[in-house]
Amino acid sequence: ANRSQAEMNEIRRQWVLAFRENGITTMEQVAAGMRIARRQERPFLPSPGQFVAWCREGRCVLGVTVADVMAEYWKWQKLVFRYTNSEKYPWPKDVLYHICLELRHRSTEGQLSRKELEREAVEVLDMWERRVLSGKPIPPVRRALAAPSRDRGPTPAEMLMAKYKQRKDAGLI
After folding, report:
1. Dihedral Cα 146, 150, 151, 152, nearest 10 deg
2. What GO terms in the biological process aspect are recorded for it (predicted)?
3. Most buried in the list 23, 38, 61, 88, measured by CB within 10 Å?
4. Shortest CA distance to 14 belongs to which of 59, 49, 45?
């Protein structure tokens, strides 16, 4: 663990060379690799090649980072009371609506801490990125259906119950 300055410089040189050779040129790409690295349960550093693969794998397909998701989630949680429902909230991207609703569901179901919620956000964002990469579209924000304006009469279940009670009262059952 005690490395000389020359060894540290060589390690840095190897990593920079790996980035340059493989087209990793932006901090967003490195951040994508770091998101995946943080999900790993292995306690050691990856090789430059493995990290480059993670940078490519974790690219921001949706144009949204975990930090963006968490910022929008907390903003939505603070402002949602101003709207009649979550569908009316002004979502910057449709995918954030779906991700934030899933996070709220997981958060309330599992009573998650902020750190656990952020881990869930990584997982949900990854799921949506894989979905888009497989060719599936992002559904639009769905508006809630309005309640029927007038009574439509008895439901089939209510009609069967009425028939049952009628037959029971007549002693047929």
Report:
1. -80
2. DNA replication initiation
3. 61
4. 49
Tokens for 94? 């449709």
Spatial separation of the C-alpha atoms in residues 89 and 76, rounded to whole Å: 8
Buried b (16+ CB within 10 A) or exposed e, 105-120: ebbeeeeeeeeebbeb
Question: In this structure, what token pair is assigned to residue 75?
Answer: 């903003």
Q: What is the DSSP string of 64-82?
A: --HHHHHHHHHHHHHHGGG
Largest CA-CA distance found in the chain, in angstroms, rounded: 98
146 pLDDT band, cuts 50/70/90, is: confident
Per-residue model confidence as pLDDT tens digits over 2-27: 789 999 999 899 999 988 887 777 78
- Tokens encoding 118: 């952020």
The pLDDT score that the predictor gives to residue 57 is 67
pLDDT at residue 66 greater than cutoff 70: yes
Work out the end-to-end distance of the chain between its first and last CA atoms, rounded to an integer number of angstroms: 84
